[in-house]
Amino acid sequence: MADPKGFLNASREDWPRRPVEERARDWDEVYVPGALLPIIRTQADRCMDCGIPFCHEACPLGNLIPDWNDLVSRDDWRAASDRLHATNNFPEFTGRLCPAPCEAGCVLAINQPAVTIKNVEVAIADRAWEEGFAPPRPPDRLSGRTVAVIGSGPAGLAAAQQLTRAGHTVAVYERDDRLGGLMRYGIPEFKMEKRHLERRLEQMRAEGTKFRTSTAVGRDIDAAGLRTRYDAVVLTVGATAWRELPVPGRQLDGIHQAMEYLPLANRVCEGDMKASPLSAAGKHVVIVGGGDTGADCLGTAIREGAASVTQLDIYTQPGTERDEDTEPWPTYPKIYRLSAAHEEARELRTAPSADADARLFAASTLRFTGDANGHVRALHLVEVDAERRPIPGTGRRLPADLVLLALGFSGPDRSDGLVDQLGLGLDPRGTITRDADFATNVPGVYAAGDAARGQSLIVWAIAEGRAVAAAVDRLLTGSSRLPAPIGPYDRPMTV
Predict the structure, then answer these.
(1) Is the pLDDT of residue 2 over 70?
(2) What's the CA gap between 268 and 419, in Å, rounded?
(3) CB neighbours of residue 436 within 10 Å
(4) Gyration radius (Cα) of the chain, Å
(5) Which of 190, 300, 216 is nearest to 256 (CA)?
(6) What residues are paired with 368 via a beta bridge?
(7) 203/211 Cα distance (integer angstroms)
(8) What's the 3-state SS for 435-449?
(9) What span, in angstroms and rounded, lies between the C-alpha atoms of 299 and 395?
(10) How far apart are CA 93 and CA 88, in angstroms?
(11) What NCBIfam families is this protein classified in (predicted)?
(12) Measured between alpha carbons, how far apart are the two ends of the chain, in Å?
């Protein structure tokens, strides 16, 4: 504990965002470049080095948070990088994309703002790359065993890197033309510039991991045949089967799933096209769904020049403080949070019908109506109570030229045939079943990440990737020294 009074003498200070008017005109990350490092040492000093650090329990990776806070406060960045990478393969991803359940579990958060754990994490990760503290770590020798990892999202990449470093020959199969899964085509550039992803992929290539893009296992390659070619197969295909909204008018043109819309905007940033065929430019946009994917659509539509953007959330607006009766510390509370996209919507007034930002809370979609050409022109909604029951007399109509459905995902997409070709068992939610060792009902086939856990956070995906790697390593060698931070049945802390 570098400064025993740090948490008393310094207040929380977050990485400042660029002005809304500036950042809404480009696709660069929303934060002020170079503004984090000057404040981060003081923020690391606020860590109390608790005897029982609940931030460890709140983080499925078991990150050694007090350790690297102390090292940062002492300006020992190399040691801080070693501690950080000991538990997290991709801290530059989680430091930008994770909602930080560790901060909800910070002991300091009992009665004041938590330590800026996420900011410290990303500062260490970026400094590690700048100073060369994250070189490739190829294995000293090869085991002679082979593993196929299907899917290159965070779970797949974590599993592949761990298994490669353990000496196994690993090939990652990705159905898209580029690697990264939702980090590539689901996460907008303004949340994480893809250069961070490319840098880590180059490290993995240097370590010996092989990548096969534009290859949909089950469609381009027979899944059962692939299984016979490898000693083990790890399924990390994600939960990409999106949820539908079965209301009248759903068939109208102009109503699309979020994951039909976001990849096209990302392809524009990749240089594949000049403009998205689903661009929101000049359109009245309504986003159905109040989660992070909806916020990603919101920020994207703002940058594309939408005439207006409104986001519907079926839940009532949460308060700004934790409800100690229903969500006591150290659980992750549902409180009113203002993402970068919502801050932009508030200042730019993209949704005149909304109260504070682009969101309409406690709003349920009744139907869509369109014009004579069959294109959507309006969304009809009604306010609901806490039990989602319609409140009489609260019906409203919103103009809508483009509707984006961001209602979450139910499990792996079965259209490519992978599930059926392997004969995988599925649970009632549609996710892949597995045992306590991450093994499916098919010998030698393992499942990790959202495909088996269900839709979750990036930090849980990386933890699953690390854990399934240890299970596969045990299968191939009889034992494993790889860490297994979680089990397949572990869940976030709840009351």
Answers:
(1) no
(2) 32
(3) 9
(4) 23
(5) 300
(6) 379
(7) 12
(8) CCCCECCCCCEEECC
(9) 27
(10) 10
(11) GOGAT_sm_gam
(12) 31
d(CA 193, CA 190): 6
C-alpha distances in angstroms, 163 versus 183, 273, 391, 406? 21, 36, 54, 34
Beta bridge partners of 287: 311, 404
The answer on pLDDT for 44 being more than 80 is: yes
Strand order from edge to edge, sheet including 169-173 = 210-212, 169-173, 146-150, 232-235, 445-447
Single-letter code of the amino acid located at 391: I
SS3 state at 37: helix
| Helix H or strand E segment including 80 | helix 77-85
Mean residue pLDDT of the chain comes to 96
Residue type, 372: A
- What is the reported pLDDT for 170? 98
For 185, 255, 260, 339, the CA distances from 266, given in Å and listed in that order, are: 6, 19, 11, 19
Q: How far apart, in whole angstroms, are the C-alpha atoms of residue 163 and residue 170?
A: 7
- Amino acid residing at 264: L
Segment 429-454 shows an average pLDDT of 97
169 DSSP β-pair partners: 146
3-state DSSP assignment of residue 265? helix
What the block records as the tokens of 362 is 């406690």
Question: Percent of the chain scored above 90 by pLDDT?
Answer: 96
Q: What are the structure tokens assigned to 183, written together?
A: 């980090």
E-strand ranges in 373-447 read 376-383, 396-399, 402-405, 445-447
> In the predicted model, is pLDDT for residue 448 greater than 70?
yes
Residue 109 tokens, joined: 């958060």
Q: What's the length of the chain?
A: 495
Determine if the peptide bond prior to 101 is cis (ω within 30°). no
Closest CA to 201 of 192, 188, 210: 210
How far, in Å, CA of 324 to CA of 121, rounded? 28
pLDDT(98) > 70: yes
- CA-angle at 330, arms to 325 and 331, nearest 5°: 70
